[in-house]
Every structure is written in C-alpha cells, then in structure tokens.
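Reopening: E3 ubiquitin-protein ligase CHFR still failing for me.
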Amino acid sequence: MEELAKEVSSLSAEEGEETSKQNGQIWCLKRIGKDSGWLQLFENTEVTIGRGLNVTHQILSVSCPLMISRNHCMFKQREHGQWTVTDNESLNGVWVNGTRISPRKPHVLQQGDLVRFGVPLDGNPVEFEYVLLHSSLDKIKDFLSKTAGAEVKALTSRPKKSKRKFGTDETEPNISKAKLYRVSNTDKSHGLPCPPATLPDQAGPSEPSGRFTQCSDSSQHLTSLKRYNENLKALKERMGATQKRAAELEGQEASSLEQRQEMEALQEQMKLLRGELNSQQELARQRMEILERTVCEEERRLAMERIQQKEDGLKKQLEEALKEEEKERARAQKEEVVSQMTEVLENELQCIICSELFIEAVTLSCAHSFCQHCIADWRRRRDECPICRQPIVSQARSLVLDNCIDRMVENLSTVMRERRTALISQRKGLRKAPSVGLVVIQDDSDTDPSIQPSSTAKATW
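Support: Ran it again with your exact input. Result attached.
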C-alpha cells in the first residue's frame, strides 16, 4: 500500500510539474508585507540564501547585519517535485510555520508554508518572512524585480483591479500574521520587572504549572491561562489554514465568481479570527500579568523570609559568640584569682619546715606558725623557734588558719587538692604509729666490759 501511494504521489507530482511547465508556473518565496524582494526557486538546482556573495539570493538585514548567516539555508527540489529546506547551521535558524527546523536535516515544504529567517528583535516583526507559492511567472515576475520602477510599472500595467485589490488585501493579513508572531515572542519579555514567563505554545503547558506550584493562590489563574492558551492554539490553527487556503487561491486564476466569493469569505473569516485572536491574547496577557505579580509577591515574601532567617542566624551566632566571650573572660578572671590565691598561699600560709601549706596549723608564743607535725618533730631536737630562735614557751592550734586554708584550697586545681589530701592522710598515719627509742649505755670497766641494752618505748600521739 505504501509503495502504491508513493507511485500515485510521484505520478501526480510529475503531472503537476508537466502542467506547471506548460502553463509557465514557477515556485517562489513571497515576502510577507512586501511587493518586492520575492525569491524565485529554480527547479533542478540548489537555491542558497544568505548574506554572503556566493549564494543564489543575497539578503541583507538592515536592523541587524548578523541576523542572516553567510550561507543561511538551502532550498532543493526532490525528484517528485517537492521542495525541501535545509538549515546550514545558521545562528538564528530557519522557522517553518513558527517551528524551528533541525540543522542539516532537509525539511519538506508544502505550498502555503510560512518560512522565516531569523528571529524578531525588540518587539519588531521578523524582517524576512516568506510564503511558498506556485504561481505563473507572468503574474509575479514584476515582484521578483528589485527596482522601484518595476513596482510602479506593475501597479500601472495590471488590467485586473480585482486581482490587485486582492493583493493589497492579502498584504494586510500577512502583516497581521507577522504581528501575531511578534506578539507571541514579545509578550514574554517586556513590561514586567519579574523574570519572563514562557508562553505555553513554545514551552508546553506543563512548564508554567510546574513553575508556579509554590503559589497556592494561583491555581485558578493557571487553569484560566491554560484554557486561553488552548483557545489561542485553536485560533492559530484555523488562521493558518485560512491563510494557506488564501495563498492557494492567490496562486490560481481569480477570474471565476466562486473563487472571488470564496476569497471574500476567507477575508471576512480572517478578520473575525484576528479579532477573536486579539481578544484571547489580551485575556491571556492579563492572566499572565496576574500570575507574574503573584509570583513576584511570593518570591519577595520568600526573599524576606530568607533574609529574616539569615538575620536570626547571625543574631544567634552573635549571642553565642558573646556568651563564649563572657565564659572566656570569666575563666580568665577565675584563673587570675586562683593564681593570685596560690601566690598568697605559697608566700603567707606555707610552713617553713616542710614547704607545704599548713596542716593543722600551730602558733607558738613568738607568733610564728608551723604544722603541728613539723613543730613536734622539730622540738625533739631543739626547743626553740626555727625562725626567730626564741625559746618555745607555749603553742596553740590555729583553727582560723585551718579554715582559711581549707576554703582557699577548694578553688585550687584538682592536682593540688589531691596532693594535700594525700599529705594529710600520710601525717595522720605517722601520728598513729608508735615511736621506739633505743638507749645504749657503755661501761668502761677494767674487768668485763659489757653492754646492757635498755629500751624504753614511748608512744606519742
């Protein structure tokens, strides 16, 4: 079945080509909104378009010289008479019926297709936009000329006013078509300070809904916007079909009454479609503005929340830093106090005999103080003060010194407290142990010297 269909299409294409050759019809690209600068597509050859010198048709952009590449694209006719366009990896691309074609891949064209080179700039319509036509050479040869005199001659030499009127009427829909593409490209980049929102006819209907899911109050506007976008798509399809039909009728003889009536009906239909399309676009634009305002408010609120959270975090860090600084200051003060206290203890409350803090301090009659164990051990050898060498008349426990030392030792380090505890335990053990003294008496007699030991045991507590 597919082979049969291909054969039928090839036969019909060959018949159409033979008929067109007999009638003197040619293929060309009619420039929208212009009565000159149309580009003829020569059969059985590759037609190249660009701003370079080695191309078939050289087109130069006035607003942006680099809009068109040196070898922008290539048109080629297949064996069956179908034309294809290939994008030669141009910078701004080739657009067919509003869709950019893939580079280096031939795209099949149909009569009435809209071919656009480049993109719109600053809200202006596309500079180079064409319609593929198959018409008689006698009718369009004047438009293929690039001189103004040829255009004037074409205006004055045509006997059929109705046909000329159709040409002028056709220009207006084409300009409206260009404005339609301009609106679809510019509504998303002007007038609002927020980030631009992509229209669903280019990015798909799921992108806006995915972008605005954070806005809880925008679901109703999104539904309305989707509905308007669907209506816009339907209107654009109907308008494209109407323009395609009008282009087909333009390429034929418009002498019959039915064709003129059909053309007038198509023009009326296009006017209605344009009015409805403009109204739908206005509603969609309003909905889009509401959505973008909602998004702006939501983003502003989220930004304020982030700023507030950052400020709270900074405040918390500052408070923690202040607390840590206060702790460090208190620790330093405590260390300084402990250092001073240790210095005082070492200088004023230290026993001169054992070089330790007083343990069970005892004050002598000369007002000097010592450890009870140390002064007792000292008095076994000498009964005088170790400092001033005065005789010891009396001694008394100094509870005030003991209490003062105990309270001050509590603030010392753990090592010093443990060391003092060990010393106290050691001295208590020495105090409980009995002391044994041996006295040896030697008798120097002539007869029998002997040593008679006598031991005296004295326990000191």
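The domain at 361-440+454-458 is CATH 3.30.40.10 (Herpes Virus-1). If you still see a failure, please send the error message rather than a screenshot.
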